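Quick start: what a row looks like.
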Amino acid sequence: MYQQLKDKKKTLAVVGLGYVGLPIALAFARKFRVIGFDINKDRIAAMQARQDPSQELDAAAFDDTDIQFTANPDDLKAANFFIIAVPTDVDAHKVPDLTPLKKSSTTVGRALKRGDYVVYESTVYPGCTEEDCQPILEQESGLSAVKDFKVGYSPERISPGDKTRTVTDILKIVAGCDAEALENIARIYGDIIKAGVYKASTIKVAEAAKVIENTQRDLNISLVNELAIIFDRMDIDTHEVLAAAGTKWNFIPYSPGLVGGHCIGVDPYYLLHKSKQMGYDPQVILSGRRVNDGMPAFVAKRLVQLLTQKGKNLSNCKVLVMGITFKENVADIRNSKVADVVKELMDYSIYVHIHDPHASPNEVAHEYRLTLQDEISSGYDAVMLAVSHNEYKAFDAAFFAGIMKDNPILVDIKALYKREDMEPTLTYWRL
C-alpha cells in the first residue's frame, strides 16, 4: 500500500476537512495524491480558492500539493486509503454524539474495495472504532474487516493556534487491526510526521491514550479552578500562590480558567460514557467535569458581586467581554465557555457587549444567538478579559480607565495583566 501511494498508483482520501482534517490532508498531499472530502460545499469552495475556513493556515500551505477538494461522495471511490477526521461532540445531556462519525463511516463504506484501508483520527472512547464504526463499513461495503480491508486508528494531535508545533512536528500514535495493518499505517504516516510515530499494541490502546490525554488536563485544571474558588474566599491571589508553589521542581504548572473547546471540555464525557456502560461510575473524572462546567457561573456571579458592591444597578450596567473563541488567537468558537458567561450575565439583566478580533460574527450569531461588536466603545461599568488574544496584550490600565465609567472594574480571567500595573481607582479581579 505504501509504495503504491508513493508512486501515485493509489490515492489517499481525507474525510472531514476541519481544523484536523485539512492540515493532515495538505501534509499528505505533498507526498501522495489526495482527495479532500467534506460535506460542506462552502468550505470546499474556500479550499479550492486556497483559503482555510478555520483560519489556521495561509494560502502558502496549499503550495506544492496534489489534492482534489470535493463534496461529491462518488469521488471517494477513486481512493484506497481513507482517513476519517470528523468532529466528535456530546449532546445536550453530555452523551457522546457519534452522528458525524457514523455518517462518514457510511460514506466511506460505500466507496470501500478489497485491499483498502480506513484509519480514524476522531477522538472516541475505547472500542468505538471496532464496535461502532467497523460494522458500518462492513455493512455498506459487503466486505469483511481484516480479511478484505484493514482498519486503523491514529488520534489527532493538533493544537489550534500553535504555529511552532504543527501537525508534522508532533509524535503520532498509530494502531492497526493486525500486524500488517500496523506496519503499513506506521510507514504511511511516518512519511509525513517528522517527529516520528508510536506504534500502539491495539486500536483500543490508542483510543484510550487519546481520551486520557485531555481527561488528565481536565482534572488538573479542575483542581486549580477549585483552588481559585477557595482562595478567592480567603482574599488570596491564586496566581501568586501558584508562582510560589512553582518554585518546587516537581510542581506541575496549571492555571485556572474556562475549559471549553472541542477537546478538554468534551473528551472526558466519552470515557465517562464507556465506563458507565462497563458498570463503573467514575468519581474523580465526573467531579472534575462538574467543577469546570461550573466556572462560567462562578465568574459571572463574582462580577455581579463586584458591581453590586459598587452600588450599581445591574439592569443599568453595561459590560464589555473581550474574546469569545475557546482559545487565544484562533477563530474556533465551538463549545466556548465565554458564551456561557455572557448568558449568565444577561440573566442578571446586564447589557453585554462582546468583542473578538478572530471570531466570525455570523458564526457567533448562528451558534449562540449573540452579536459581536465591530469596535470597542466606551461607557462600560466593567470589562472582562475572557480570551488573551495578542491584540489585547497592548492594553494598559489607562486604556481600561478610558472606556469605563466611575468605579471601573476589570475582571481578568486569563491573568493577562499585572495587578501592580493597575490604577488605584480601578478594581482589579482575576481568577
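That is the whole record. The chain has a mean pLDDT of 94. The two ends are 52 Å apart (CA to CA).
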